[in-house]
Specification:
The protein is an alpha/beta fold and about 450 residues long. It has helices at about 15-30, 45-50, 50-70, 85-105, 160-165, 180-190, 210-225, 275-280, 315-330, 360-365, 380-385, 415-425, 430-435, and strands at about 10-15, 35, 110-115, 115-120, 125, 130-140, 145, 170-175, 195-200, 225-230, 235-240, 245-250, 255, 260, 265-270, 300-305, 345, 350-355, 370-375, 390-395, 405-410. It has three domains: about 10-145 and about 265-330, FAD/NAD(P)-binding domain (3-Layer(bba) Sandwich), CATH 3.50.50; about 155-265, FAD/NAD(P)-binding domain; about 350-450, 2-Layer Sandwich (Enolase-like, domain 1).
């Protein structure tokens, strides 16, 4: 299907999860595809996001598991933690995954340019080397980067990008933010032995999650020893002679810490792409504005993933990339990704998982709702003597019994939620869950036993 008028049928700028899927699928449909990546193949998720972060989460869990194991008869003498061993093993696996992504594209005859690409004219891309190529379609899949707020001394703070490369675990760390990245790293560093303070300019953590679940995480985190400061902003960060930092927060005394980390959101990577050269429209946050089919206001330019600031989740970017490639290069009818009812997780300690509307959202939209809950202490925690309770919550439309939201905080909550999300997406009712026989003894059985 190659169009001889252009060098390529598709040129993808950014080889993360969305760009990789789109390029591979388009090539499988017979398109001649090239892709450019100025950093590393794999993007945020593989290189500096959810994959290495989840590995750190696994490592952090051993801190509590080794303590709990004693009540199960295990005696572990001389246990110790070596951050550099974990860090280096994680980074080595990132290298492996980058190679796998590269191999997948090469096996589909996708030409990879490991350099920056800029749109310099109509259907025209100029590479950093100076080479100019043309493409029938251009896909923007450049993702997003951590937002670094403006305050005096902000340049002394790190973002989540640098957290994977630290030489040592900080004894004392302040993390700015109230979202999932801030809470996940708060849990990780705490389990590795850091004294953690989470600073939020607002009055709540995890605003998009159900209030009961996020309050439970706050209670458990406080019980573990993580400190929270709400309605607080940074006044300054100053380096000390010994390598630490002097930090002044509003309404707080000055304190000395080993590290400051900002996790206050992400900004779409649209600067320097040359989008203005062809009139691509951007939103208030710098995001590429697209329609339901991921098309920009320029007919031959599309965008998927975090750069569109629709739903900043890797599986969403992958689905958007698949839909784009199938719709533009496939033989079937074009289709759009359904961005409603997307399940998500926070890999905190313990983790949170959710799908659908919160209780508040359901009341605002539906008026009358029924809420079912299960508040329990997991069996493992009981025997281990760990006073940590889990919470499952189901929100239903009172008019038709349809489940419109499920929210949970519990060990392995994300693993349980994947199956539950299918049921919610399919429009099942509370009666359908009640009619399902429980698997006992499991935490998951609470999904079909809630009252």
């Amino acid at each position: 299907m190659s169009d001889t008028e252009y060098d390529y049928d598709l040129f993808t700028i950014g080889i993360g999860s969305g760009g990789t899927r789109a390029s591979r699928v388009a090539a499988a449909h017979g398109a001649k595809v090239a892709a450019a990546e100025e950093y590393r193949v794999g993007g945020t998720c593989v290189i500096r996001g959810c994959v290495p972060k989840k590995m750190l989460v696994y490592g952090a869990h051993f801190a509590e598991d080794l303590v709990d194991a004693q009540k199960f008869g295990w005696q572990i003498e001389g246990k110790s933690f070596d951050w550099k061993v974990l860090r280096d093993n994680v980074l080595a696996d990132v290298d492996r995954l980058e190679g796998a992504y590269t191999e997948t594209l090469e096996n589909h005859d996708v030409t990879i340019f490991k350099e920056r690409a800029t749109i310099t004219g109509d259907h025209e891309i100029t590479l950093e080397s100076g080479r100019v190529v043309t493409a029938r379609y251009i896909l923007i899949a450049t993702g997003a980067r951590p937002r670094m707020p403006e305050c005096k001394g902000a340049e002394h703070a790190i973002s989540s990008n640098e957290a994977f490369h630290l030489d040592e675990v900080p004894k004392r760390i302040i993390i700015a933010g109230g979202g999932y990245i801030a809470n996940e790293f708060a849990g990780i560093f705490h389990e590795f032995g850091s004294k953690v303070t989470l600073v939020n300019r607002g009055d709540a953590i995890l605003r998009s999650y159900d209030e009961a679940v996020r309050d439970r995480l706050l209670q458990i985190s406080l019980m573990k020893g993580i400190e929270f400061k709400f309605n607080t902003i940074f006044e300054y960060i100053e380096p000390c002679d010994d390598g630490r930092y002097r930090v002044k927060l509003s309404d707080c005394e000055e304190e000395i810490v080993d590290l400051v980390m900002f996790a206050v959101g992400r900004v779409p990577n649209t600067e320097g792409l040359g989008l203005e050269n062809v009139g691509v429209e951007l939103g208030e946050n710098g995001e590429v504005k697209v329609d339901e089919f991921s098309k920009t206001n320029v007919d031959y330019i599309y965008a998927v993933g975090d750069v569109t600031d629709r739903v900043q989740l890797t599986p969403v970017a992958i689905r958007e990339g698949q839909a784009f490639a199938d719709s533009v290069f496939g033989e079937g009818k074009p289709y759009a990704v359904d961005h409603s009812c997307i399940a998500s997780a926070v890999f905190s300690h313990p983790p949170i998982a959710a799908v659908g509307m919160t209780e508040g959202e359901a009341k605002n939209k539906l008026g009358s709702v029924k809420v079912y809950q299960s508040d329990f202490r997991p069996m493992k925690n009981v025997l281990a003597g760990r006073n940590e309770r889990s919470l499952f919550k189901m929100v239903c439309d009172a008019g038709n019994d349809k489940i419109v939201g499920i929210h949970m905080i519990a060990p392995e909550a994300p693993e349980m939620m994947q199956a539950a999300a299918i049921a919610v997406k399919a429009g099942l009712t509370k009666a359908d869950f009640d009619a399902t026989t429980a698997i006992h003894p499991t935490m998951a059985e609470e999904l079909v036993l809630m009252k």
